[in-house]
Every structure is written in structure tokens, then in C-alpha cells.
């Protein structure tokens, strides 16, 4: 079993108005086999947490730690984090013109595993994963994310999750912009990988909708850069009924 | 310093990576060198003894060594006069580093041209083995091979079936002896002796290069390949190529270029003339990978007759300075000209490249697609001219140039000149300059790719529209060259 541990994390970004602190003391522990949902209103810092774990250069860690089985994640470069088993399914995956999906997937898999996958198995795996996610076979020859619809991009993120087999997957609002059918297909993909029992999942979402398909073991409510409340799946049900207003009202004035 | 010391070859033996990283740590300036794979040099007596500098005597001597007809000597001397008289170009790249007095204008490395690789002197044969040329021929990836070493073509071969069909593929010196009538008609007819300073220089001291004639209706399906190698320090290589594609024929000619790494500069100044007759098609592909001490100043021009198509695919990866603008003169109705150009400017490199399309006849079409990448403080410029002359009604041209900057210390410029003297024309121009985006790098790195690999993938993707036009082996070679160029590009 592996553990991803976030301890008292403070993170800021530089804006035109100067430095702005987004995360204000986040602590969270995820073990492989577990699914954690992070829920919260827009601007509460959910996506900042996701990007910080993956190492996006825009975010500066002011204090606190992230460790993976005791290893200092914050000391690792973006690619080292990926090779250590962290995967971020992005909210806005970027286009890479002139690079086919086939080339991209194979290069990434080779980099992640430290060796090229056996061609025969790999081709089969890719085909199967694509068909399960209802991704048209001709996407293999298309350029990475180029001209893909929002839903197609999200499916391709989950395709990568299934093919790369990370130890910890962070899904950054994977559900946003998906219709019900696409949401189901994408959720099934995550569940298939989760069922293998070797992956911890951090599911970041604004809505409770995706939690009908992906069942969290723990729910954390994010408000103003910190965790305002934690609980089991029943907490999501309450949020469904009550919304985030209750937390917003209960939040004390912002610290200096 | 004597020439013998200059000639000391760099060791081609691979060194373990751990050792390399130690060396690089102590000598960071070597990093660029480590990425160039063709930087070894052979020991060569002839080149060591070759004379430096240019004079009438040198020109006469070259002509005499080749037993040339009088008219060619006269043309050479005329070239020399023009060269002396014409000023250096005041635009483009900095050429002040060229020391014309220090250059060796003619180096004969072997007495006899070979038809089998075994007949070549061992040093030279090894060079081509290392470059993979005989292998390409054995694998039948090419239908004819010419290998030029220093000033002359040392190896030459054409597939028998093509010879039977009347295809001529010879080194230019031999062709002049065997087909004087064709030379009198075409040599210097596309690029006149006084066209520009470096074309004049080439005319004065030219040696080697290819002559290709494809008879009416003959399609040469598999490319002809020429390989140019400079071995000597301060060498000047001045090959002269003439291609004539007769009516309805097709040929694809590919050239590659490499040289050893030296501390002082060499000069490569070629002239390429192409005649594409009615309904014929010629594709001319260059993968230029000179070492970073070569000035590469080349004049290339084609004339496309009625219904003919001329395609330049011009890849400039190496050299210190390149100035090259392949041109198509569209002289017949419905003629087409196309240039796909890739330039890669790394540390210490200036690539000033582009194309020239001259519409002379009505209903002619041309397009220029240029992609340039600059990194490590390199400069890449697109320089192009589209001219539509009076009477070239209903002509159409599109220009698209995209530049990619890998870092903030590199530079990209665009100089698109347009000269239209006819009303009824269609023109399109698009230019973009982009930087490798932080988001793209983050995306690829978050999938496990180290930064240089991610960068190389983005750059490869950027030039892919041109790479896919190349035969597969060359596309792979180009990708590999880009990867080598990108190594050490970051961090």
C-alpha cells in the first residue's frame, strides 16, 4: 500500500496585483485503494491543490509538505512526480499540434515505465481502452487534443489514466462539461482502474453528480483554501441538499 | 600552426555517458559539440597540402586539372571578375567572418572516381559507412548515389534500368566532358555568372556537384541521392548542380551535407540550376546538417515551364550561417512552384532562409511554407520574395511562415517582400511567432517526459507538416537531428 500525504500546505500564486495565497493550511492523507472527493465552491482552491500536487510552475508552495510514501514530492520535478506514480487528469488539457495520440501515448508510457512497452500488447491495450471509453479508433492518428470537443478531451485524459496505471490519480473537475452519457463512460473508466485496488483517487468536483457513479470513501469540503468539513459519502448527500452556503456563512474572516 | 596540427581528427569512438557528463561539467562550452555526430575528420594528405587563397592562377589551375574546354575557362574567369567587383551582401547574416584568403578552393582527395565502395580509399569509404550511405544504396532506398568528398565526386552509381531508360546521373565534371552541347545550352542560363557575389564565386571555382537528365515521360520513382562531405578545415566546397527534367518526366533528388567540427570556418557555396520542362515535375530535397563552423551560402533556382511543377523541400539544421532562398521562375502557363522550408537555429547559428517565387506566365500558382525554430540564442529569419510580373494574370500565391521560440534569448524575424504588377492575382500571407507554451511543457512532463524530451516532442510536432513530406528515412533522420539539437536545450 502507498500513501500520499499532504501536511499543512500553504500555496500562493503571483497575480498582477501581487502574490495571493490560495491554499491556507491543507492536510489530507490518501491511501491506495481509497477514493477521496474534494468538493467546494468555485475559487475555493480545489484546482490549486491538484496543480500543486502535479508541480505546475505557476504555484508556489509557501510552507507545508507533500510526501509519497515518505518521499518529498515537492523536491521532485513535474516529470519525476509522474514517474513516481502521480497522475493529474486535467481540467483543460492542452493541444499539442503535429503529435499524434499514438506517438504521445507510447512516448509517455515509455518515459513512465523506463522502458518501451511491448508493441503487441500495447497496441491491444490501447485499442481496448479506447473502445471501452467509446473513443473512435481514428483518434489514435489525430493530434493530441487538437480539435477535440470538451468531452473528448476528458475521455482521453481517462484513457491515459487507464493506460499509465498511476498509484495516485487526481481528477480535476473531470465531470465539468460532460453530458450524462459521457459522464457515465468516464466514471466507468475510473472505476475499472480503481477496482484493480492499486490506485488512490482524489476526485475534485463542484457538483455531486459524478458521485452517483464514482463512490467516494471520504468527502472533504473545501472553502476558502482549507478543508471546512470532512466525512463519509453521506456528507455529499447533505451538500446535494444544502449547497455550500452554510460553509460560506460559517467561514471566519480571512486571516491576514 | 601547421596544417598537420589543424588536421588532428576528433575521436569518433563513443565515450561512456558518465565520462561525458564529467567533461561537460568542467567544459560547459563543449555541450553544443557533443550533440553533433558527424564531427570527426579524416587525415588527408592532399587537403593538407592544398593551397589557400583565390587568384586567376588558382582558377586557371582548376580548369586545367579538369581539362576543360576554353569556353568554360572563360566563364570561370568572368565569374572571378564579378566576384572581385561585387560587394558583400549588406543584408541578411553577418558574413564578416569569412576570410577568402584563408580558404582552400580546390582539394582533390582521390585520383579516380569509384563505382564500388571497395574501390575508394579506406578513410573515405569509412566516412560514408559511418554516414550510412552505402547501406541506403544496398537497401534500395535510392536509385542512384553520388558522393562528393571535398571538391570532387568520389563515388557514383546509377541503377541499370534507369540508365537503360536514358536517365543521366553524373558528376558535373564528367557530364561536362560527355555532354558539352547540353552544358553550352543550360550551364549558367538559370543563374547567370553575375547573379550575386557567391554565384560568381561558384562559377569561378566550381567543382563537382550532380548533373541529372531525365528523358521525356520517364518517372524516376525512387530518389536519386547526393551526399556532400567537407573534410578539410578552411575548405571551400563549390559544387555545381544542373538538373533537366524533360517533358512529362519526374525525379526526386535528395542531398545531405555534413562536415567535421573545427575551430575555424569553412565555406560551402553551391549553385543549383533546374529546368522543369512542360508537364514535368521535380522535387529537390535538402537536409543540410553542416557543422557549426560552415558558412552555407547557396543559390538555387528553377525554371518551371508550362504545366510543370517544381518543389523545394529545404531543411536547414546545421551550419554557422545559412543564406539560401530557393527560387522558382514560373515561365509557362499553369506552372506551379512550392517551397517547404524548415530552419533550426541553435546556439551560435543564424539561419536566414526562405524562398522566391516569380510569376511570369498567367495562371501560375505558388506556395511557400516556412517553419523555423530558434533556441539557445540562435537566430532564424524567414526572407521571401513573391513577384507577379505584368501579364501573369490570374496568378495565385500563398505564404505561411511560423516561427517557434524555445526560450527567451533566441530571435526570429520575418521579411516577406511582395512585388505585384498585375491586378488579377490572389495572394495570401500568414505569419505566426509562438513560444513553447508553459502549459504544453507541463502537460507532457506531467506524463513522465523529461523537459528536453517534452520540448523535442513539441518542436517535432511543429515541423511535422514538413517532415511528413519527406521519405520515411529522411523524416526519421530529421527527427533525430532535431532531438540532438534539443539535447541540452533546457536546464
Automatic annotation (TrEMBL), chain A:
Q: Mind telling me which InterPro entries this protein's record contains? A: AAA+_ATPase, ABC_transporter-like_ATP-bd, FeS-cluster_ATPase_SufC, P-loop_NTPase
| Keyword annotations of the record | ATP-binding, Nucleotide-binding
Residues forming the ABC transporter domain are: 4-249
SMART domains in the record, alphabetically?
AAA
Q: Which sequence ranges form a coiled-coil region, renumbered to this chain?
A: none
Determine if ATP-binding is one of this entry's keywords.
yes
Please give the Gene Ontology molecular function terms for this protein: ATP binding; ATP hydrolysis activity
Sequence similarity: Belongs to the ABC transporter superfamily. Ycf16 family.
The record's section on PANTHER family has: ABC TRANSPORTER I FAMILY MEMBER 6, CHLOROPLASTIC
Q: Under which name does UniProt file this protein?
A: Fe-S cluster assembly ATPase SufC
UniProtKB/TrEMBL annotation, chain B:
- Lineage, top-rank taxon, reads Bacteria
The SUF system FeS cluster assembly SufBD core domain is annotated at 228-462
InterPro entries attached to this UniProt entry: Fe-S_cluster_assembly_SufBD (IPR055346), SUF_FeS_clus_asmbl_SufB (IPR010231), SUF_FeS_clus_asmbl_SufBD_core (IPR000825), SUF_FeS_clus_asmbl_SufBD_sf (IPR037284), SufBD_N (IPR045595)
The residues covered by the SUF system FeS cluster assembly SufBD N-terminal domain are 162-225
Q: Could you give a single Gene Ontology term from the biological process aspect?
A: iron-sulfur cluster assembly
Entry's family note: Belongs to the iron-sulfur cluster assembly SufBD family.
Could you tell me what this protein is called? Answer: Fe-S cluster assembly protein SufB
The gene coding this protein: sufB
Amino acid at each position: 500500500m502507498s500513501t500520499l500525504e499532504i501536511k499543512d500546505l500553504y500555496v500562493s500564486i503571483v497575480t498582477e496585483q501581487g502574490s495571493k495565497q490560495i491554499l491556507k493550511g491543507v492536510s489530507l492523507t490518501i491511501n491506495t485503494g481509497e477514493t477521496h472527493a474534494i468538493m467546494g465552491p468555485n475559487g475555493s482552491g480545489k484546482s490549486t491543490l491538484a496543480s500543486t500536487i502535479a508541480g505546475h510552475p505557476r504555484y508556489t508552495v509557501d510552507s507545508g509538505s507533500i510526501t509519497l510514501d515518505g518521499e518529498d514530492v515537492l523536491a521532485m520535478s513535474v516529470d519525476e512526480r509522474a514517474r513516481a506514480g502521480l497522475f493529474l487528469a486535467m481540467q483543460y488539457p492542452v493541444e499539442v499540434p503535429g503529435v499524434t495520440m499514438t506517438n504521445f501515448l507510447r512516448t509517455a508510457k515509455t518515459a513512465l515505465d523506463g522502458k518501451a512497452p511491448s508493441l503487441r500488447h500495447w497496441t491491444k491495450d490501447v485499442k481496448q481502452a479506447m473502445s471501452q471509453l467509446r473513443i473512435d479508433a481514428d483518434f489514435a492518428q489525430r493530434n493530441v487534443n487538437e480539435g477535440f470537443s470538451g468531452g473528448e478531451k476528458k475521455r482521453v485524459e481517462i484513457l491515459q489514466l487507464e493506460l499509465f496505471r498511476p498509484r495516485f490519480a487526481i481528477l480535476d473537475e473531470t465531470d465539468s462539461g460532460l453530458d450524462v452519457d459521457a459522464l457515465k463512460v468516464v466514471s466507468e473508466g475510473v472505476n475499472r482502474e480503481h477496482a484493480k485496488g492499486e490506485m488512490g483517487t482524489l476526485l475534485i468536483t463542484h457538483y455531486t453528480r459524478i458521485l452517483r457513479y464514482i463512490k467516494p470513501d471520504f468527502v472533504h469540503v473545501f472553502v476558502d483554501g482549507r478543508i471546512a468539513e470532512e466525512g463519509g459519502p453521506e456528507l455529499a448527500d447533505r451538500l446535494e441538499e444544502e449547497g455550500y452556503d452554510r460553509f460560506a456563512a460559517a467561514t471566519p474572516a480571512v486571516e491576514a | 600552426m601547421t596544417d598537420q596540427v589543424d588536421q588532428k581528427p576528433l575521436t569518433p569512438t563513443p565515450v561512456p555517458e558518465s565520462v561525458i557528463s564529467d567533461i561537460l561539467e568542467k567544459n560547459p562550452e563543449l555541450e553544443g559539440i557533443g550533440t553533433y555526430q558527424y564531427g570527426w575528420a579524416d587525415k588527408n594528405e592532399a587537403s593538407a597540402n592544398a593551397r589557400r587563397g583565390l587568384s586567376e592562377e588558382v582558377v586557371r589551375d582548376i580548369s586545367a586539372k579538369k581539362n576543360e574546354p576554353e569556353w568554360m575557362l572563360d566563364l570561370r574567369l568572368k565569374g572571378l571578375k564579378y566576384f572581385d567587383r561585387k560587394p558583400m551582401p549588406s543584408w541578411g547574416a553577418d558574413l564578416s567572418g569569412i576570410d577568402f584568403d584563408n580558404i582552400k578552393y580546390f582539394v582533390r582527395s582521390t585520383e579516380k572516381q569509384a563505382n564500388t565502395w571497395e574501390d575508394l580509399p579506406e578513410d573515405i569509404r569509412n566516412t560514408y559507412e559511418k554516414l550510412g550511405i552505402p547501406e541506403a544504396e544496398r537497401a534500395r532506398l535510392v536509385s542512384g548515389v553520388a558522393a562528393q568528398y571535398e571538391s570532387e565526386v568520389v563515388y557514383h552509381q546509377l541503377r541499370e534500368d534507369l540508365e537503360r531508360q536514358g536517365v543521366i546521373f553524373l558528376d558535373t565534371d564528367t557530364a561536362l566532358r560527355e555532354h558539352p552541347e547540353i552544358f553550352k545550352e543550360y550551364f549558367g542560363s538559370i543563374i547567370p555568372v553575375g547573379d550575386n557575389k557567391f554565384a560568381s564565386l561558384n562559377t569561378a571555382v566550381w567543382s563537382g556537384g550532380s548533373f541529372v537528365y531525365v528523358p521525356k515521360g520517364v518517372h524516376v520513382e525512387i530518389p536519386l541521392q547526393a551526399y556532400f562531405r567537407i573534410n578539410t578545415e578552411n575548405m571551400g566546397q563549390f559544387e555545381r548542380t544542373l538538373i533537366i527534367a524533360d517533358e512529362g518526366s519526374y525525379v526526386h533528388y535528395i542531398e545531405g551535407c555534413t562536415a567535421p567540427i573545427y575551430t575555424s570556418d569553412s565555406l560551402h557555396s553551391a549553385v543549383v540550376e533546374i529546368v522543369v520542362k512542360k508537364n514535368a515535375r521535380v522535387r529537390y530535397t535538402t537536409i543540410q546538417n553542416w557543422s557549426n563552423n560552415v558558412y552555407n551560402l547557396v543559390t538555387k533556382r528553377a525554371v518551371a515551364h508550362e504545366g510543370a511543377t517544381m518543389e523545394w523541400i529545404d531543411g536547414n539544421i546545421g551550419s554557422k550561417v545559412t543564406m539560401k532562398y530557393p527560387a522558382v521562375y514560373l515561365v509557362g502557363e499553369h506552372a506551379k512552384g512550392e517551397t517547404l522550408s524548415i530552419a533550426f537555429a541553435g546556439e551560435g547559428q543564424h539561419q536566414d532562409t526562405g524562398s522566391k517565387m516569380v510569376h511570369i506566365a498567367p495562371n501560375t500558382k505558388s506556395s511557400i511554407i516556412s517553419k523555423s525554430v530558434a533556441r539557445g540564442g540562435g537566430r532564424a529569419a524567414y526572407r521571401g520574395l513573391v513577384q507577379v510580373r505584368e501579364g501573369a494574370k490570374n496568378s495565385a500565391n500563398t505564404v505561411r511562415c511560423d516561427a517557434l521560440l524555445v526560450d527567451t534569448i533566441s530571435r526570429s524575424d520575418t521579411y516577406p517582400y511582395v512585388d505585384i504588377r498585375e491586378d488579377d492575382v490572389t495572394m495570401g500571407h500568414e505569419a505566426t511567432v509562438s513560444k513553447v507554451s508553459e502549459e504544453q511543457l507541463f502537460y507532457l512532463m506531467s506524463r513522465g517526459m523529461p523537459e528536453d524530451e517534452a520540448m523535442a516532442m513539441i518542436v517535432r510536432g511543429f515541423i511535422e507538416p514538413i517532415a511528413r513530406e519527406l521519405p520515411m528515412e529522411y523524416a526519421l533522420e530529421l527527427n533525430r537531428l532535431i532531438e540532438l539539437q534539443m539535447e541540452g536545450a533546457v536546464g
